[in-house]
Design a protein that fits this description.
The complex is a heterodimer of chains A (232) and B (108).
Chain A lengths: L5 H4 L16 H25 L4 H17 L2 E3 L3 E3 L4 H8 L1 H19 L7 H27 L3 H29 L5 H33 L5 H8 L1
Antiparallel strand pairs in A: 1-2
Helix pairs in contact in A: 2-5, 2-6, 3-5, 4-5, 4-6, 4-7, 5-6, 6-7, 7-8
Chain B lengths: L2 H19 L10 H8 L25 H34 L10
The chains are: A mainly alpha (232), B mainly alpha (108).
Chain lengths: 232, 108
């Protein structure tokens, strides 16, 4: 009814926000848990076979970096900020299944300890920010890096595109969930979510490429060509 | 854990903690979803959390808000790293137990 909800004006206190409780209907929240549970189960089974001796330190460090980076909101246009999701970065470096385990931990701790994202919405938040980003990021990056065939700029372009697309996918999924939950009509929420996150995705792409470059400069042996070769 | 891994963990955690130190400089503008929720008038639907530990990345009982944010970042980095180390350690042990030989190609 009212175009400006008075409570909206006081809610500036939260600098970072995943989907809080109250935005999603019970069926949508439940579906989020089911999909996430399936994804995590597959991820555990797959990584069970591929995890090597160095997986624990690598994955732990990646999770720590993503948690910290998600706190660093960067400004985009119009008094809005964005933050890294990190699913694409983790999937590029460690493969999609390890990335799902990392992202589930990060988003889970954010909800349970930091009250960032609702408890009922946790399944949806993990799915939107961790599962889709890992799978899509890997699906976009892996073929481009193969095509790049050693040309670094093409690989970097692939990583940027993968990162940008994962943010768009995450935003679109969230919009659909909000629409199905009758929180906001799809025609309203989808374009605005995609629009804002088209800008935020640029930040995701830049951070992803920068992080990959840093790894390439300091620990070339950890770069994805080796990871991808030993994984499948 | 090999020395190379130790270096990786120290370096990687160091970078994460360094970012946490700079977290007070993060933009305090509403993020993408929050902006949309405010603009489209549904941010009021958000329920407050049933309990609060380190609500909204502000460490409790610390007067200085910048310090509270940095502390919450450090705590979060350590918790997340510890949980993933633990989970992967358990997974690799479980995976290792299923394999008859360390690099056995026949196990499925």
């Amino acid at each position: 009814m009212a175009l400006i909800d008075p409570s909206a004006l006081q809610s500036i206190e939260a600098p970072a926000m995943h989907i809080p409780d109250g935005f999603l209907s019970a069926p949508v929240a439940a579906a989020g848990f089911v999909l996430t549970a399936v994804a995590v189960t597959v991820a555990v089974r797959r990584t069970n076979r591929t995890l090597g001796e160095r997986s624990a330190p690598l994955m732990g460090v990646m999770a720590a970096f993503i948690f910290a980076a998600q706190m660093m909101n960067f400004p985009v246009a119009g008094g809005t900020s964005g933050h890294l999701l990190g699913g694409a970065l983790a999937a590029i470096l460690l493969g999609p299944w390890a990335a799902i385990i990392i992202m589930t931990t990060v988003v889970g701790v954010q909800a349970l300890v930091f009250q960032d994202g609702g408890l009922a919405a946790l399944g949806a938040n993990v799915f939107n920010m961790g599962v889709i980003t890992a799978l899509l990021g890997y699906a976009v990056y892996a073929p481009t890096s193969r095509l790049a065939n050693g040309r670094p700029w093409l690989r970097q372009a692939g990583a940027f595109a993968a990162a940008w697309l994962t943010v768009q996918a995450s935003a679109a999924l969230t919009a659909f969930e909000l629409a199905v939950s009758d929180t906001s009509p799809l025609t309203v929420v989808l374009p605005s979510m995609m629009g804002v996150h088209a800008l935020i995705g640029i930040g995701e792409g830049l951070i992803t490429v920068a992080a990959l470059s840093l790894v390439g400069a300091t620990r070339r042996d950890l770069l994805p060509t080796q990871v991808a070769a030993t994984e499948e | 854990m090999k020395l190379r891994h130790l270096g990786l963990v120290a370096g990687g955690l160091g970078i994460a903690l360094l970012i946490a130190l700079f977290s007070p400089f993060a933009s305090s503008h509403p993020d993408g979803l929050e902006r949309v929720a405010e603009d489209k008038g549904f941010s009021g639907l958000a329920d407050s959390p049933p309990y609060e530990l380190i609500n909204n990345y502000v460490f409790p009982w610390v007067g200085n808000e910048d310090l509270a944010t940095v502390l919450s970042g450090i705590v979060g980095v350590l918790i997340v790293a510890a949980v993933v180390f633990g989970v992967v350690f358990l997974l690799t042990r479980a995976g290792g137990a299923q394999r008859s030989t360390p690099r056995g190609g026949g196990s499925s």
